[in-house]
Specification:
The chain has 493 residues and is an alpha/beta fold. The protein folds into three domains: 87 residues, Immunoglobulins (Immunoglobulin-like); 298 residues, TIM Barrel; 89 residues, Sandwich (Immunoglobulin-like), CATH 2.60.40.3950. Helix content is 20%, strand content 30%. The chain has eight helices and 30 strands. The strands form eight sheets. It has a seven-stranded mixed sheet. The radius of gyration is 25 Å and the shape is globular. The mean pLDDT is 96.
Length: 493
């Protein structure tokens, strides 16, 4: 019996000699059964074989070990009624399964915590192969766990080059046939998703955006739905996929809320794996309380309101807050793309301590216009190393939440109540901090009774200094009078 690993991909390829009409409109699916469970996976057209046969594929990701049986269903006789079985074995090393929401945090399918601190390379797959390879090699040297990237190419500042291959049949001079996705492009997308999985990165796949000169952002409702069904059918069997309905949905002004709800419904109906799904804003937030929204995908709403509001967003929506755009370390003309590494690091720590998952971004000027945020390549800034350090801290501590009960008026504190507390000073630079005091300004912010191991963390220099053990009523911590410091208090016993 054929075997496939848990959370791996099983694929069935079928051929048809004749197809009347558009092969992308042929519906094919398969019913998969194990014990008393049944799941439906949709298939897709993947181009012609060398002999002219039409190739259709169905992909399935088993979520339980044991024997599975399948049967295909299609109105086309050549594709209908194929049956078979396979055995699902233990997962391959490093495959922890599909990302799931756990309260206001994330787990993999096997229960391992997931900390999706990520980065953005919108159009990296639309670049020449050498640049794509360079991007992958750069990512291997980081600890990033998520990549925001687009299906469609991007037309914007520093994004003027034409891609070598397009998502639809056609070209810029003659136009594109939006009824016919280009299988060659999607094979490249397949390969890119697999490469990301191999280095432990979740693909936060942006399905629509407004930065366009090819007409992809203004397709008809029917073409949008056909495209979306094709992408979901093709990619749902990959464990490391997240669906992002849009980058800055509110810039696609011709699409009303019902259009986005219809897109979400297609994903819900077709994605049997139930991958994480969200939508990203430019100005105003989408209603993240919608039941199909698994987590908040957030861009700051103006120049100054960034991650300081993370705990409020989590409290309002009761979902994880992924802070996908908090500004970019760089030196381009736009205000969002010329902050310092220190400021990006500060915003990241502010969001992390408040219970969120901030994302990295970089936009340094370059004569060849290869900026990481758009095309990938190499990282030039100082913030990636600081993100790596923050992620190490996160992995040590486990998932943390904002703890308003222990927050004085001037200092955010996160952690796990009764176990560990993390206070972040940001751009402030005290010489000491008294975490237990009768000062009325502190309110109820004193640490609970007990003994603590005290560590002073320099989030910029990336050092952790052991300050010894202290009783709760003697938590007087000396600090260096520098910015970007944090204090971790771990309860003993």
């Amino acid at each position: 019996m054929e075997k496939v690993a848990l959370w791996g991909m099983w694929e069935l390829a079928l051929r048809a000699e004749q197809i009347s009409g558009n092969p992308f409109d042929v519906e094919i699916k398969a019913l998969f059964a194990k014990d008393n469970r049944k799941m439906t996976a949709f298939g897709f057209y993947d181009g012609k074989d060398d002999d002219g046969s039409y190739i259709f594929k169905i992909r399935f990701m088993p979520d339980a070990q044991g024997d599975w049986a399948y049967e295909t269903i299609s109105e086309d006789a050549a594709l209908d009624g194929h049956t078979g079985s396979f055995n699902c074995t233990a997962p391959e090393a490093g495959n922890h399964g599909v990302a799931r929401v756990n309260g206001t945090h994330f787990n993999y399918g096997d229960g391992t915590p997931l900390y999706p601190f990520g980065t953005t390379c919108y159009a990296w797959i639309h670049q020449p192969e050498a640049l794509r390879r360079q991007t992958i090699e750069t990512l291997k040297k980081t600890r990033f766990k998520k990549m925001r990237m687009c299906v469609f190419p991007k037309s914007y500042d520093y994004n003027k080059n034409e891609p070598e291959i397009y998502p639809f049949e056609g070209n810029l001079a003659d136009g594109f046939d939006y009824t016919r996705p280009n299988p060659a492009f999607y094979k490249l997308l397949d390969e890119s998703v697999v490469e990301m999985a191999n280095i432990g990165i979740e693909v936060d796949l942006i399905l629509f955006h407004a930065y366009d000169r090819w007409g992809f952002s203004t397709m008809s409702k029917e073409d949008n739905h056909r495209y979306l069904r094709y992408v979901v059918a093709r990619l749902s069997a990959y464990p490391n996929i997240w669906w992002s309905l849009a980058n800055e949905y509110d810039l696609l002004r011709h699409l009303d809320i019902q259009a986005w709800e219809d897109f979400a419904k297609i994903i819900q109906e077709m994605d049997y794996v139930e991958h994480l799904t969200s939508i990203h804003n430019c100005y105003g937030f989408y209603n993240h309380s919608r039941n199909w929204v698994t987590h908040c995908s957030i861009q700051r709403q103006d120049v100054y309101k960034t991650t300081e509001y993370t705990n409020e967003w989590i409290a309002e929506y009761k979902k994880p807050a992924v802070l996908d755009e908090i500004g970019y370390e760089g030196d381009i003309s736009w205000g969002w793309g010329n902050i310092t590494a220190e400021e990006l690091t500060r915003r990241a720590w502010e969001g992390y301590v408040r219970g969120g998952y901030p994302g990295h971004g970089e936009t340094y000027m370059s004569d060849d216009e290869v900026l990481w945020w758009s095309k990938g390549g190499v990282l030039k800034g100082e913030s990636p190393a600081r993100f790596d350090f923050m992620m190490k801290i996160a992995e040590q501590m486990g998932p943390i939440s904002y703890l308003p009960k222990f927050n004085p008026w001037d200092l955010p504190v996160g952690g796990v109540e009764g176990k560990v507390y993390l206070a972040y000073f940001g751009f402030n630079r005290p010489r000491f901090r008294d975490f237990y005091s009768d000062n009325p300004w502190l309110g109820n912010a004193n640490m609970p009774e007990g003994r603590y191991r005290v560590e002073v963390i320099d989030t910029w220099d990336m050092t952790i200094t052991d300050a010894g053990e202290m009783e709760h009523d003697k938590l007087y911590v000396k600090l260096p009078g520098k910015q970007y410091m944090a204090v971790r208090l771990t309860k003993i016993g």
